[in-house]
């Protein structure tokens, strides 16, 4: 058995940044990544015959100076600035996103626009008190009419469940800071060309930074630097067991390699970005909260990549498909993310994202059937003609999104309480590791703060506040320090 101070489960943004920070501080760390080829998790970049594409599309934008500094430190010479252009497709029409007021009013028509404004006014006059569901939260903010047009169909595609089954927590986190009045004013100014560069909420930014060959460049460079600093990144490794010794306070980590061989490690700390239900099922002695972990749900998705010499000019980075007549939920245009992702410089490469559950009809469909579905739907939408498609590829992504149902918060809190009291040295990070729908920069922050806690030998930072408290989440480490000084955040002791 080999000793390592810290074992990191998962080579996504959270796990790699935790390992990078530990290695930078001279600590002994090893990363176990299940994928035999790619690091980066859902932020990886896949290579298909020289065509590069994301699993979801990842902008590099953050209000945290520490995260931006990390990006520049790890990948100093490979960022490009890209204009943001995205649209919404609904009822055979395209709407700029963020909305342009005159265009939206014209597309909806005067009668529908009037109904939307009346619905908004009614919602403000008679709000649902203490909204519990996504539907109630959005209805309060935008009105029932706009909810049904711009939120309901797309949200139910993404989650595979009704908007009355989704917790209001998800809306508050993902749509936080936006309201209809602000959107109308911003849209008017945008339509009239009066909006100054840099104004607006985070979700309304008009440009972003992006690695020239996709986000995988960042994580491949990060993994390389971890190794250069003395850490290890082991690919094709699945963590099958975690045994905790209450006497020594040490973990025994059992890892299966891609060739079937089993390795064991003794570790003082375990940092996990694995899905909580998988993590808790691997622990002995059996956690008391295992049933709560098993009750956590996830949404999966697959991307059908269509490649060809398209006759349709498409400037968008991505298009949200709100139309219920097709199954596709979002379309990525990878050449608009970066021209260097297209090897011949002229082809179109589109990623059609289909949200599903692992094992359902879409997930289990044959690749050739998925390609035919994607060709039919992209032709119907008008973003590319079916006859222009020359090649295609399918990539499946399990557990892409943690589901915010009406039980998730209590389940996660129960698990957190047991870990803090029973399993010292076990740290949860990242989107799946914490069952929080974090952005890439938030996931990185959880890894960074966890590593700093390990280096300090005490829990200075409460990583669970990242992306919960807006000021803390956006201000980063310095903001966390100031928050602690002013007692707005109290660090949670877990060791």
Number of structurally distinct domains: 3
CATH class of the largest domain: Alpha Beta
Question: What's the pLDDT, averaged over the residues?
Answer: 88
Relative strand content: 15-25%
Uncertain segments: 198-204, 469-495
Task: From the 3D structure, determine the CATH topology of the largest domain.
Answer: FAD/NAD(P)-binding domain
Main sheet summary: 8 strands, mixed
Question: How many beta-strand runs?
Answer: 19
Query: What is the annotated CATH architecture of the largest domain?
Result: 3-Layer(bba) Sandwich
Looking at this structure, what is the CATH superfamily of the largest domain?
FAD/NAD(P)-binding domain
* CA-based shape: globular
Straight-line N-to-C gap: 25 Å
Helix/strand structural class = alpha/beta
Rg result: 23 Å
Could you characterize the architecture of this molecule?
The chain is α/β, with parallel strands linked by helices. It folds into three domains: 2-41 and 63-78 and 214-294 and 406-485, FAD/NAD(P)-binding domain (3-Layer(bba) Sandwich), CATH 3.50.50; 95-204, no CATH class; 298-402, Protoporphyrinogen oxidase, mitochondrial, domain 2 (Polyamine Oxidase, Chain A, domain 2). Helix content is 39%, strand content 24%. The chain has helices spanning 13-24, 65-74, 101-125, 134-142, 144-159, 168-174, 180-191, 216-228, 276-281, 290-294, 334-337, 361-364, 367-381, 408-422, 430-434, 440-456, 470-485; strands at residues 2-9, 29-33, 45-48, 51-54, 79-83, 86-90, 93-97, 207-211, 232-235, 237-245, 250-257, 262-272, 283-284, 298-308, 318-321, 330-333, 348-356, 389-402, 426-428. Strands 1, 2, 9, 10, 11, 12, 13 and 19 form an eight-stranded mixed sheet that branches. It starts with a strand and ends in a 10-residue tail after the last helix. Residues 198-204 and 469-495 have low confidence and may be disordered.
């Amino acid at each position: 058995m080999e000793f390592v101070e810290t074992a990191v489960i998962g080579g996504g943004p959270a796990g790699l940044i935790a390992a990078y920070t530990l290695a930078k501080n001279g600590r002994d760390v090893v990363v176990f990544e299940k994928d035999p080829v790619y690091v980066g998790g859902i932020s990886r970049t896949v290579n298909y015959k020289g065509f590069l594409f994301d699993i979801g599309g990842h902008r590099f934008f953050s209000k945290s100076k520490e995260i931006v500094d990390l990006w520049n430190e790890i990948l100093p010479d490979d960022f490009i600035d890209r204009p943001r252009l995205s649209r919404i497709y609904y009822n055979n029409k395209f709407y700029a996103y963020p909305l342009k007021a005159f265009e939206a009013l014209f597309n909806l028509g005067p009668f529908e626009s009037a109904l939307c404004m009346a619905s908004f006014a009614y919602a403000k006059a008679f709000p649902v008190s203490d909204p519990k569901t996504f539907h109630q939260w959005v209805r309060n903010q935008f009105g029932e009419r706009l909810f049904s047009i711009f939120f309901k169909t797309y949200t139910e595609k993404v989650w595979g469940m009704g908007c009355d089954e989704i917790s209001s927590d998800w809306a508050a986190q993902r749509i936080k800071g936006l309201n209809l009045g602000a959107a109308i004013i911003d849209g008017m100014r945008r339509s009239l060309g009066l909006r100054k560069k840099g104004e607006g909420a985070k979700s309304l930014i008009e440009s972003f930074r992006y690695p020239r060959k996709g986000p995988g460049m960042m994580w491949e460079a990060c993994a390389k630097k971890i190794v250069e600093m003395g850490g290890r990144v082991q690919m094709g490794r699945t963590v099958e067991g975690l045994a905790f010794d209450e006497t020594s306070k040490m973990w025994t980590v059992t890892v299966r390699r891609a060739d079937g061989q089993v390795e064991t490690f003794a570790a003082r700390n375990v940092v996990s970005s694995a899905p909580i239900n998988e993590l808790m099922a691997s622990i002995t002695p059996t956690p008391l909260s295992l049933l709560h972990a098993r009750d956590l749900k996830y949404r999966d998705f697959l991307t059908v990549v269509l490649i060809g010499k398209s006759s349709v000019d498409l400037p968008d980075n991505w298009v949200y498909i709100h139309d219920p007549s097709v199954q596709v939920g979002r379309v990525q245009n990878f050449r608009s993310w970066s021209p260097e992702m297209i090897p011949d410089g002229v082809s179109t490469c589109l990623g059609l994202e289909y949200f599903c559950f692992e094992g359902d009809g879409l997930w289990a469909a044959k690749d050739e059937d998925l390609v035919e579905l994607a060709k039919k739907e992209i032709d119907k939408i008008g973003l590319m003609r079916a006859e222009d498609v020359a090649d295609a590829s399918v990539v499946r992504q399990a557990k892409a999104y943690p589901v915010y149902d009406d039980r998730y918060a209590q389940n996660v809190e129960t698990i957190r309480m047991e870990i803090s009291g029973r399993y010292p040295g076990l740290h949860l990070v990242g989107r799946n590791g914490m069952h929080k729908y974090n952005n890439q920069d938030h996931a990185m922050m959880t890894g960074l703060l966890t590593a700093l806690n390990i280096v300090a030998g005490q829990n200075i930072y409460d990583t669970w506040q990242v992306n919960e408290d807006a000021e803390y989440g956006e201000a980063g480490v310095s903001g966390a320090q100031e928050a602690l000084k002013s007692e707005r955040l109290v660090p949670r002791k877990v060791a």
